[in-house]
Amino acid sequence: MDFRKPLIAGNWKMFKTPAEAVETAKQIVALASATTDVDVMIAPPFTALTPVAEVVKNSHVSLGAQNLFWENEGAYTGEISPSMLKASGCDYVIIGHSERRQHFGETDENINKKIRAAIKNDLIPVVCVGETESERESEETFSVLDKQVRTGLEGFGPNDLETLVMAYEPVWAIGTGKTATTNQAQEVHQFLRALIGKSFGNVLAKSLIILYGGSVKPNNVKELMGMPDVDGALVGGASLDPETFGKIFLFQN
Ligand code: PEP
Fold this sequence. Notes:
Blueprint: E1 7-11, H1 18-32, E2 39-43, H2 49-56, E3 61-65, H3 82-87, E4 92-95, H4 98-104, H5 108-120, E5 124-129, H6 133-137, H7 141-152, E6 165-168, H8 182-200, H9 202-207, E7 209-213, H10 218-225, E8 232-235, H11 242-249
Parallel strand pairs: 1-2, 1-8, 2-3, 3-4, 4-5, 5-6, 6-7, 7-8
The structure holds phosphoenolpyruvate.
């Protein structure tokens, strides 16, 4: 198997003022200086991006945003463009998080436009997919994921997707304390990698980073990372506390 460097990403959601974010980021940078074996990314709210960019500059912690709009400028009150994110120091952007799908009506078609805009502006898209609890119970997990991936990535070629990161986030595991079992996570990650292989070729499938997200904590990260197709984690709640997040990316429990 090709080497895929693990990526541990923290999604801070709608938490932390700029001052709080700077303080947390400083502690994360200090903890992350202990390793180069793993890439670390943090995604603060938009209002904290610029000051946090100063903190992570010259460290190997990268900055990400939690969302973007697909146009670079225009009369789109309240939206933030890819070029603004790039100019604020972002390298990554999370796209299609289930909270955006659920609360803000984000569709696979919107997500497709956002992925295109991210790539065009040299931002690494972290594209989230995942099934709800009722979809899992009615055995629709794979058909739901198939649609999310096919529609989200429609019209792209393998060269466009060289930097793509996928995050499998079962909706029933986000912020609930429930985690997919390692076998459930592996089964879906393997399915996603095979789907990317079928659609875009094996070279991309082999190099694709697929994160698991859903109540990742210091005590379950190692076991999840032990699965062959789990390449990292997208961490919500547990990334807000630098010590806890540090234990996750240093794989200490
Ligand atoms: C997330 O927000 O992407 C997430 C996985 O949240 P949590 O770790 O809190 O479940």
